[in-house]
Design goal:
The protein has 492 residues and is an alpha+beta fold. Helix content is 33%, strand content 25%. α13 runs antiparallel to α14.
């Protein structure tokens, strides 16, 4: 059976035409899905080769223009695109006709040929042979508009990457960012480790967990909300400095800056306090932005903020007290603090009354009255101790903790503190968390006995830092949503 010169006769839908081509190829003993193709150069490498160099490349066909017995095509991948010329002067006429008829936009093609430059200066491969590697049954989105449906972009990210230059830049940038983080930390004597995602106690951060049943052990487990308690145990085992690029899960709301599944890096350094971490992070963020953006600066709207100078500092507790007109540290029960806050008539009493702890009340006030106004890069420090049960109390005033956060444009990019290593105080703070959970606080932590046992064997003084990689990417690339920096965000 010979291949028909016009496989679209009687067909109007492009998908039907493409399927017919696939069937015709198979019926004629031509497998349109090759098992492999030996390449000598990536598309990017071919672009850098000297003229007249012989190359074998492969990629997706994303453009074609035919002029009788001559055509230009374009092959693309995530890193580069390259022009290819096909002519009956170099390729058999029948092979040329086959390409013209049976190879479509979206197909994967292998090309063998020589490098040259066209009269217009375009780097091009003069094809001497080709192979069809994989047929696309469905057409690509229209070239100049790509996927205009936002949800379709997230669900069909592979098509978004083919058609959207911005998505390619951002998601390649994600890989570059993680690579930089690993390199920077390893250069500073941090060792990368892995800790469990499936855990037996909810500890490490204030968040509602995802719960799951471990059938073999017949017990309920939770997905990791943070790697903190395990990384501290690694430090107790003798690793002076450790880090983990960790997938974490928090069963809470979704918005432009939150996803239930997210990635963060946490690092811990023995013998540091939070001031050491501030200094380390300040240099880290300066070098990171230089590597990613070319300059130690970050853009927020129409403002450019330099990161190669001393960062602005704001006292968290003092600012909250100034906003409210009283000292929140003077209130150690949620009932008393609620009554005082409600007397100010600054917030909806129903919202305040629904909060279970002093920490939750203070955090509510901060997120509505303080955080949105912090636009320039800022170090927030001196937090009330009730906010973070794993942080070290300040020796001068144990009602506060040695903690800082780095904020830009009202977004928290990292949280760090001097770690609490006193097992007696740590047990007390976790037992208070357990009481809050019993009262209905779904974000409270469990008493993690394994963690406490490790602390009772002694942990060195240390400081740790956690930073959301997704949120940092949103800021670096000025993206509208955290979904734009994740390859496959969870959808409804």
């Amino acid at each position: 059976m010979a291949l028909p010169e016009n496989p679209s006769i009687g067909l109007t839908k492009e998908t039907d035409i493409r399927l017919n081509k696939i069937n015709l190829l198979k019926e004629n003993g031509i497998n349109p899905y090759a098992d492999k193709y030996e390449v000598t150069h990536t598309l990017l490498e071919a672009r850098d080769e000297k003229m007249d160099t012989k190359v074998k490349v492969a990629g997706r066909l994303t453009f074609r223009r035919t002029f009788g017995k001559f055509m230009f095509i374009q092959l693309s991948d995530i890193f580069a695109k390259i022009q290819v010329s096909l002519s009956v002067n170099e390729i058999d006429l029948e092979k040329f006709k086959f390409f013209k008829t049976y190879v479509d936009i979206g197909d994967y093609v292998g090309i063998e040929g020589e490098m040259y430059t066209t009269q217009t200066g375009e780097i091009t491969i003069k094809a001497t042979s080709y192979e069809l590697l994989s047929k696309a049954m469905l057409p690509l989105p229209e070239k100049f508009h790509g996927l205009t449906d936002i949800e379709a972009r997230y669900r069909q990210r592979y098509l978004d990457l083919v058609t959207n230059e911005e998505s390619r830049k951002v998601l390649l940038g994600r890989s570059r960012l993680v690579s930089f983080i690993r390199s920077y930390l390893e250069k500073n004597q941090f060792i990368e480790v892995e800790t469990p995602i499936l855990q037996g106690a909810v500890c490490g951060a204030s968040a509602k967990p995802f719960l799951t049943k471990h059938n073999a052990l017949d017990k309920m487990c939770n997905l990791r909300i943070a790697p903190e308690v395990y990384l501290k145990q690694v430090v107790a085992g003798g690793f002076p400095r450790v880090f983990e690029v960790a997938k974490c899960f928090r069963n809470e709301g979704m918005d432009a800056s939150h996803l239930q599944e997210f990635t963060q890096v946490e690092w811990y350094a023995s013998y540091w306090n939070f001031e050491d971490n501030i200094r380390f992070f300040t240099n880290f963020i300066k070098e990171l932005t230089t590597y990613m953006l070319g300059k130690p600066e970050i853009i927020v709207g129409d403002k450019v903020f330099a990161l190669d100078k001393e960062l602005r500092r704001v006292d968290y507790t003092a600012t909250i007290n100034e906003l409210l007109g009283f000292n929140v540290l003077d209130y150690d029960t949620p009932e008393a603090l609620k009554a005082k806050v409600n007397s100010l008539k600054m917030f909806d009493p129903e919202d305040i009354d629904s909060l279970k702890t002093c920490g939750a009340i203070i955090d509510y006030i901060y997120k509505r009255k303080m955080r949105p106004s912090i636009i320039e890069p800022t170090i927030l420090y001196n937090y009330p101790a009730c906010l973070v049960p794993l942080a070290r109390p300040n020796d001068a005033d144990p009602r506060t903790i040695e903690m800082f956060q780095f904020l830009i444009n009202g977004e928290e990019l990292c949280k760090a503190y001097s770690e609490l290593v006193d097992p007696i105080i740590q047990r007390h703070t976790l037992e208070e968390q357990a009481k809050a959970k019993a009262m209905g606080d779904e974000e409270a932590m469990d008493v993690d006995e394994d963690f406490l046992l490790a602390m009772e064997h002694a942990m060195p003084p240390m400081s740790g830092l956690g930073m959301g990689i997704d949120r940092l990417l949103v800021m670096l690339y000025q993206q509208p949503s955290i979904r734009d920096v994740v390859l496959f965000p969870i959808m409804k």
